[in-house]
Write a structure and sequence with these properties.
Blueprint lengths: L1 H21 L1 H92 L5 H17 L8 E6 L8 E7 L5 E7 L1 H14 L6 E5 L5 E3 H9 L4 E7 L7 E6 L14 E3 H8 L2 E4 L9 H28 L1
Parallel strand pairs: 4-6
Antiparallel strand pairs: 1-2, 2-3, 5-8, 6-7, 7-9
Helix pairs in contact: 1-2, 4-5, 6-7
Length: about 325
């Protein structure tokens, strides 16, 4: 459109020039046409400027829009980076917590290991046996075989229990209280009966001084098992001494007419060993020290005489 107007103006100017030569009237008409053309050119110029301004504004809007989009992208990128940092921080915190928990567990296990007493081979075997029994209790295919079994109290002078229980898994159907001596004898006999092949059963007591028939019968039924006994030679006090009944002995022949067998008698037959002399209070004077030494010497001589008697009886 604007180019056509430029062309019209040029043509009007050319016509005016030509008309100046030809006629004054024509010149006047051409001059009017030129004036109109110039006005049209002016209008066209303003229109063009307006269009350029409009185009410039549109371009500025597009640029602003692009800048805003770029800023939004940068903000999103920054937010993503911030979230990644926070996630990394959370992961690090989680790892630190896990490491702290593991360290606490290790320290707790170490503390428990330090607190737990060192078990002897016999105690360790008994613990493993008890764990196997508990596992067997939860076996749905296990068939219980109940019988009466004596169980000693932790304190040998306190009442124990007679338990109607499964010997294999240890499940108790019911129980009743029993005297300390009955439980001592029954528990010893049961340990002999359930011992591993060739095992030595260890018995340590500070209260009892003999066995009854059921212990001797248990040894007779298990000729592969030996029995170690540690007791006090002064009936509940005195020196701690011990003896061992070897495997394969005719133990039923050792019972007296009442069905009992004393520890001193067994020590005389199989030999007593002095494990620990009776504790003596520290003497205040030299004479008391000499008296204590004399008592210890007498105890050793007593053991020696007992060994001689056992040798002669054999």
């Amino acid at each position: 459109m604007k180019y056509k107007k430029y062309i019209a103006i040029v043509m009007a100017t050319v016509s005016l020039t030509l008309l100046n030569v030809v006629s004054p009237v024509a010149v006047a008409h051409a001059s009017a046409a030129q004036t109109k053309a110039e006005e049209a050119l002016k209008d066209n110029t303003e229109e063009v400027q307006q269009e350029e301004k409009t185009e410039q504004k549109e371009e500025e809007k597009e640029q602003n829009k692009d800048q805003q989009a770029t800023q939004e992208d940068q903000q999103e990128s920054q937010q993503d980076q911030q979230e990644e940092k926070e996630q990394a921080k959370d992961q690090q915190t989680t790892q630190e917590d896990q490491q702290a928990t593991q360290q606490d567990q290790v320290q707790e296990e170490q503390a428990q290991a330090e607190e737990e007493p060192v078990l002897t081979e016999e105690e360790l075997a008994a613990k493993e046996k008890e764990e196997a029994r508990k596992a067997l209790q939860n076996d749905p295919n296990h068939v219980h075989n109940y019988k009466w079994i004596a169980k000693m109290n932790a304190s040998e002078v306190a009442e124990g229990t007679m338990n109607y229980m499964c010997e294999e898994c240890g499940k108790i159907w019911f129980f009743s209280p029993a005297s300390p001596y009955v439980c001592f004898e029954g528990d010893t006999a049961h340990r002999i009966a359930t011992a591993a092949e060739g095992e030595r059963i260890n018995v340590k007591t500070s209260h009892f001084i003999n066995f009854d028939k059921q212990v001797m019968k248990a040894l007779a039924d298990r000729p592969d098992v030996s029995l170690y006994v540690s007791f006090l030679d002064g009936e509940y006090k005195g020196n701690r001494v011990s003896f061992v009944i070897p495997a394969g002995e005719d133990t039923m022949a050792l019972l007296d007419e009442n069905g009992y067998c004393g520890f001193k008698f067994l020590g005389g037959k199989y030999g007593l060993t002095l494990e620990q002399a009776a504790e003596v209070a520290e003497p205040a004077e030299g004479e008391q020290a000499a008296e204590a030494a004399e008592k210890t010497e007498n105890a050793e001589e007593s053991v020696s005489r007992t060994e001689e008697v056992g040798t002669q009886s054999e």
